[in-house]
Amino acid sequence: MSEKKAEMSQAMKEKLAPKNFIKNPIKGTKFTIMVSSAKGGVGKSTFAVNLAFALKQLGKKVGLLDADIYGPSLPKLIGENKKPENKDGKYIVPIDSHGVQCMSMGFLVEETTPMIWRGPMVISAIKTLTERVLWNELDVIVIDMPPGTGDTQLTFAQDIKVDGAIIISTPQDIALLDVKRGIQMFDKTKINIFGLVDNMSFFKADDGKNYNIFGEGGVEKTAKEFNKDFLGKIPLHQDLRISADKGEPLTLSNPDHEISLIFKEIADKILKKLN
Questions:
Q1: pLDDT in tens, 40-61
Q2: Which domain, by its residues, includes 217?
Q3: CB–CB of 172/35 below 8 Å?
Q4: Is residue 207 packed enough to be buried (19+ CB in 10 Å), middle (13-18) or exposed (0-12)?
Q5: Number of folded domains in the chain?
Q6: Residue 12 belongs to a domain
Q7: Which H helix or E strand runs over 47?
Q8: CATH number of the domain within which 187 lies
Q9: β-pairing verdict for 193-204 and 210-211
């Protein structure tokens, strides 16, 4: 083989070789947890908010980052709509909500403003939220990811040191198809999956019976299929919906509620995985 062909061959090998990305922790944080769902509408954001306050009640200093640029919901879920403070014209001070440090694109734009952005602008926004927010010595930051497997997920996978991901799903088959794609995405990008949560698992009626509105057992079965931990079931409960609409997370407003206790159990499982 000629010297020129050898050089071309080596260049091609380098181009095709897997890239090793330098992943940096989010400044001011110790551990980073991603809350993900491959499909929208499964209660991921409500879960992320209640998990954050459950972690705080377990004695941790917690941050909550809404990484859903197109559909930020954190301001509504915690009942905050004020603009964050700007420091030195470069950095952003997170909003304090009952001791949890919070940041969302929803704090920076008007509530009804549509984010009609292409991928590069989304990536730029993610870098702003992860590099220019002054998180203050957090034990753990909870990232509420957008649904799917797009630009935001890839940016975190390539650039951010993530300690683990939690995948939220309802037990219906159509949601589980996307969950399987999400599991494979995290495995391929070498992000540890802490486990799966079966959300809206069942509805407990006034007659005392449990009704499996969206099916039964699918999330736990999927966890076993992919050798992942199953973190628990959260039933469909009106109080959880009401608290979200009021901007008062249930784990904050009613920490002894049966649903809040489930969140605490899951939070405790996550902390054991971090330690």
A1: 788 899 999 999 999 999 999 9
A2: 22-274
A3: no
A4: exposed
A5: 1
A6: no
A7: helix 44-57
A8: 3.40.50.300
A9: antiparallel
Q: Which residues touch 128 (CB under 8 Å, ≥6 apart)?
A: 92
Q: Please give the single-letter amino acid code of residue 264.
A: K
Answer whether residue 248 is part of any domain.
yes
Lowest mean pLDDT, pick from 13-17, 81-85, 248-252, 253-257: 13-17
pTM of this prediction? Answer: 0.88
**pLDDT one-digit tens code per residue, 119-171:** 788 888 888 899 999 999 999 999 999 887 777 888 888 889 999 999 999 88
- Give 114 or 136, the one with higher predicted confidence: 136
On whether the CB atoms of residues 117 and 125 are closer than 8 A, the answer is: yes
Task: Tell me the residue type at 44.
Answer: K
DSSP 42-107: SSHHHHHHHHHHHHHHTT--EEEEE--SSS--HHHHHT--PPPEEETTTEEEPEEETTEEEEEGGG
* Residue 1 placed within a domain: no
Q: How many CB atoms lie within 10 A of CB 179?
A: 25
**What is the arithmetic mean of pLDDT over 190-207?**
89
- Please check whether residue 3 lies inside any domain of the structure: no
Average pLDDT, the chain: 87
